[in-house]
Structure to design on (365 residues):
């Protein structure tokens, strides 16, 4: 579909710049500042650019509802709690996770320029979108970026049927010379919950091994997962080493939740007196100044060699290409920046609903 008018189309392909402008306007209407609305819109639309629809504008209504219900503070202001030469710790005061993450990662990069490497943590925050957005901020400064966050309990520990751990994503980005940067951006579950939600929206089944129902048995029904079941840790069941993904998820929760004093495990978004409560998520960011270890040009050329060895290794029968992390997403981003971002019917419907409730123009073009 090449239709670009969301008002008239069931599904649509929207120019990236116009979609981002619409999202920014939505946040402005609910009290977010111009600068913060721009940051938040960019993070959401970048997810769609890169083909990660589960974390894109399909989630917009959740943020708006959270702000309107008083669960998210539209005025995001980081408070410095503690600082050393190579570390900093902020309280986001229940602000937007995208804004908190953007500011904290840039602060981390600034510190790494002086100290060689830095770590910055955040507590009292909210869902921050794709982890890769923040790790990639380090690339333009010729640094290695690291980003991770805990999340609401959606994943079952190995041998459990109770979803008490998050899908807790982690991203690592490293620059190269002629090759695309290496950008790992992954959940520590088999899939992020957003992919289960996308399957339900589309009326599709999910592969066996992604998740379990409320009894702890594997299921292909996304509704059964969302109604009392849970996503499996990376690897799947114990027979496929799912305990490794389970361990990674817990590690991230320790750094993002326990270390920062944020909520963790089933305490994230846990209702208080039967009422919804702020998420109190924690984020953890790292920046490594490559020049602190070896000359930048040498590192980048070596990264090219490293990547080419991987990509030129012997291919499996029937396969004609080997990818590195982030490569498919960069190609998707290039295509969607040029040709527009496709949105499914239910996402379009959600955006129309936001337009109508807030009384703003859907898109100006």
């Amino acid at each position: 579909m090449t239709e670009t008018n969301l008002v008239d189309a069931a599904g649509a392909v929207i120019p990236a710049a116009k979609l981002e402008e619409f999202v920014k306007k939505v946040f402005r209407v609910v009290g977010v500042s111009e600068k913060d609305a721009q940051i938040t819109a960019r993070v959401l639309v970048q997810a769609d650019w890169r083909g990660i629809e589960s974390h894109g504008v399909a989630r917009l209504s959740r943020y708006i509802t959270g702000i309107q219900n008083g669960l998210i503070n539209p005025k995001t202001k980081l408070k410095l709690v503690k600082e050393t030469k190579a570390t900093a710790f902020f309280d986001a005061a229940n602000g937007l996770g995208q804004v908190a993450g953007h500011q904290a990662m840039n602060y981390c990069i600034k510190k790494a320029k002086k100290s060689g490497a830095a770590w910055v943590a955040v507590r009292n925050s909210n869902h921050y979108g794709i982890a890769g957005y923040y790790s990639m901020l380090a690339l333009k400064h010729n640094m290695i970026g690291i980003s991770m966050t805990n999340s609401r309990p959606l994943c079952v520990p190995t041998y459990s049927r109770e979803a008490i751990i998050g899908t807790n994503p982690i991203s690592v980005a490293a620059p190269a010379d002629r090759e695309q940067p290496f950008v790992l951006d992954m959940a520590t579950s088999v899939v992020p919950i957003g992919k289960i939600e996308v399957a339900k929206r589309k009326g599709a089944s999910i592969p066996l091994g992604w998740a379990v129902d409320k009894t702890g048995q594997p299921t292909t029904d996304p509704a059964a997962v969302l109604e009392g079941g849970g996503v499996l840790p990376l690897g799947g069941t114990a027979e496929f080493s799912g305990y490794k993904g389970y361990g990674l998820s817990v590690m991230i929760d320790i750094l993002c939740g326990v270390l920062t004093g944020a909520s963790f495990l089933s305490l994230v978004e846990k209702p208080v007196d039967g009422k919804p409560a702020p998420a109190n998520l924690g984020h953890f960011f790292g920046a490594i100044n490559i020049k602190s270890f070896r000359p930048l040009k040498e590192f980048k050329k070596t990264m090219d060699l490293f990547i080419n060895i991987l990509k030129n290794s012997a291919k499996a029968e029937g396969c004609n290409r080997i990818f590195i992390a982030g490569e498919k997403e960069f190609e998707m981003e290039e295509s969607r920046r040029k040709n527009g971002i496709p949105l499914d019917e239910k996402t379009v419907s959600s955006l129309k609903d936001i337009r109508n409730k807030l009384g703003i123009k859907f898109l100006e073009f």
